[in-house]
Amino acid sequence: MTHAIRFHTPGGPEVLRWEEVGVGDTAPNEARVRHHAVGLNFIDIYHRTGAYPLPMPSGIGLEAAGVVESVGSAVTDLKVGDRVAYAGGPVGAYSELRNIPADRLVKLPDAIDFKTGAAMMLQGMTAQYLLRRTCKVEAGDTILIHAAAGGVGLIVCQWARALGVTVIGTVSSDEKADLARAHGCDHTIIYTRENFVERVKQITGGKGVRVVYDSIGKDTFMGSLECLQPLGMMVLFGAASGPVAPFDLGLLAKMGSLFITRPTLFTYTAARSDLLAISGDLFDVVTSGKVKIEVNQTYALKDAAQAQIDLVARKTTGSTVLLP
User: Fold this and answer.
1) Are 160 and 168 in contact (CB under 8 A)?
2) Given phi > 0 = left and psi -120 to 50 = alpha, else beta, which region is 83?
3) What superfamily does domain 139-262 belong to in CATH?
4) CA-CA distance, 263 to 133, in Å (whole number)?
5) Domain 2-121+280-323 CATH superfamily
């Protein structure tokens, strides 16, 4: 028997339980992975609260790094002892040991340790598709990223800076502003005391930005649209403050023929070829030193509830990992 965090009904952090679980035989297309580190992400909160419903009872977590202990009969590109990482379904990463479809695993470069690997996959591949696929930014562009001191935010700031992009970021405190600037954010806006729309207009000389990357949702959505230049793109990739209410699409025409999209990492990595390309690009920028993954908090896996409490309370910066 092994242990995992499971929950039997949606709810607050108290529903998370540290339980003994069985790990069945490895199916032909699966690999068994012993986790060395597990990533913490906001989507885990959505799953736990029922905002993104799961069949009950359920495991939780979408990201981890570890070592392959066995492979199914149909698996040809992995072997026992391989260092691997993953981000995406099926849920169940908050566990010591699990079976997972082998085509969701990527080999972790030797230069990247397990904690970094667990912290970087979901957030780092999200940053990759945001910057290089959803709206491919180029040198000279100006962008706005909300939650610039968060896990995705710090990666986006560094990666965008390496591409020659000017980065404006919103944060909640002076300390987070310092952190964002240290990671490539050119202009920080402390939204708790500044109007971010007015500041973006001021910084850009009234022009606005080419793209807004918004993971906050309800509280920032309309303001984010106001920050865009004509033909700009609104990329809504999360809803930390809640879902965006329905709105009149005619506003996009009135505000400058704007574009809007609601992407997910799972769509962008559904094909294995895309998963390998996106993760490979991420590994390259990390091993080159252009992007540093900041693992600023660690918790024991059995203390996942406290880790989630701190994430929701915005007490964390950068990435957080859970250690089995």
Assistant:
1) no
2) beta
3) NAD(P)-binding Rossmann-like Domain (3.40.50.720)
4) 10
5) Medium-chain alcohol dehydrogenases, catalytic domain (3.90.180.10)
Domain range annotation of the chain: 2-121+280-323, 139-262
The model's pLDDT over 4-31, given as tens digits with 9 standing for 90+, comes to 999 999 999 999 999 999 998 999 999 9
Alpha-carbon distances, residue 145 vs 114, 155, 157 (angstroms)? 27, 11, 8
pLDDT at position 176 is 92
Residue partners of 147: CB distance under 8 A and separation at least 6: 153, 170, 171, 215, 216, 240
User: Which three-class secondary structure state does DSSP give residue 161?
Assistant: helix
Structure tokens at 94: 């908050």
- Closest by Cα among 219, 214, 199 to 260: 214
- The sign of the CA dihedral 85, 90, 94, 97 is negative
Pairing of β 166-171 and β 142-145 = parallel
Kindly give, in sequence order, each residue whose CB lies less than 8 Å from that of residue 230, ignoring residues fewer than 6 positions away: 208, 256, 257, 258
Residue 89 scores a pLDDT above 80: no
Structure tokens, 209: 């930005």
Q: Is the pTM of this model over 0.85?
A: yes
Is there a cis peptide before residue 109, judged by omega within 30 degrees of 0?
A: no
The pLDDT, as a whole number, for residue 243 is 85
Q: Is the pLDDT of residue 177 over 90?
A: yes
Query: Quick one: which of 311, 261, 301 has its CA closest to 6?
Result: 301
How big is the CA angle at 218 (ends 307 and 232), to the nearest 5 degrees? 115
